[in-house]
Design brief:
By secondary structure, the protein is of the alpha+beta class. It has a domain of 128 residues: 3-Layer(aba) Sandwich (Aminopeptidase). The chain is 38% helix and 36% strand. An 8-stranded mixed β-sheet has the order 1-2-3-4-5-6-8-7, with helices on both faces. Helix 1 packs across helix 4. The longest helix is centred in the N-terminal third of the chain and has 16 residues. It starts with a strand and ends with a helix. The relative contact order is 0.13.
Length: 183
């Protein structure tokens, strides 16, 4: 399956059923931290849940409607990144990502995002990439900001999680902006 080398220690690769156990263990180790901002850890209670997630991702891939990949660092799965959907008419997508606690601060999410952004613009011929994050998730917001995304707006009370409403910040990058930033 698809594998993209980022550097000598890091690569991303499509999640496959054989990764379900590793993925579940990763989520389980960082359940509390991930669950602060994301809803999926509360829904991932068994290896079978991870397996179903991977099967759904592979189905989306086969339908040309996005997919999730693992982020590997030194041959260990460190997190996940993916295209949440593909809007082929508008030529845009949204990238989602998360990391295990042990891998935060190594720049892995930024590197993986760059890989997916380049793929979206150069190979898939998309015109726009979005990244949407919880307004209070400062570490996650730093990634699109570091990459030069423009804040396009805030959706108030976007999600109810852990007993409170969270606003969602919408970041966008257009093809021509990315080309200008990387040249």
């Amino acid at each position: 399956m698809y594998k993209a080398i980022i550097n000598k220690e890091t690569y991303i690769s499509i999640l496959e059923p054989m990764h379900a156990e590793e993925l579940y263990q990763l989520i389980n180790r960082s359940r509390e931290t991930l669950g602060e901002w994301l809803s999926f850890p509360a829904k991932t209670n068994t290896v079978a849940d991870s397996h179903l997630f991977i099967e759904k991702s592979l189905k989306n891939l086969s339908e040309n409607n996005g997919y999730w990949a693992g982020i590997w660092y030194k041959e260990n799965i460190a997190g996940s990144i993916g295209y949440l959907y593909m809007d082929w008419r508008a030529k845009k997508t949204e990238i989602g990502y998360w990391l295990d606690d042990d891998y935060i601060g190594k720049g892995l999410e930024t590197l993986a995002c760059k890989q997916l952004i380049n793929h979206a613009f150069n190979d898939l011929q998309l015109r726009k990439v979005e990244i949407n994050v919880a307004n209070k998730n400062i570490k996650s917001k730093a990634i699109p900001e570091r990459l030069g995304f423009k804040q396009e707006g805030v959706i108030r009370n976007y999600e109810y999680l852990n007993g409170e409403y969270h606003d969602r910040v919408i970041y966008g990058m257009l093809l021509e902006e990315w080309k200008n930033a990387t040249n």
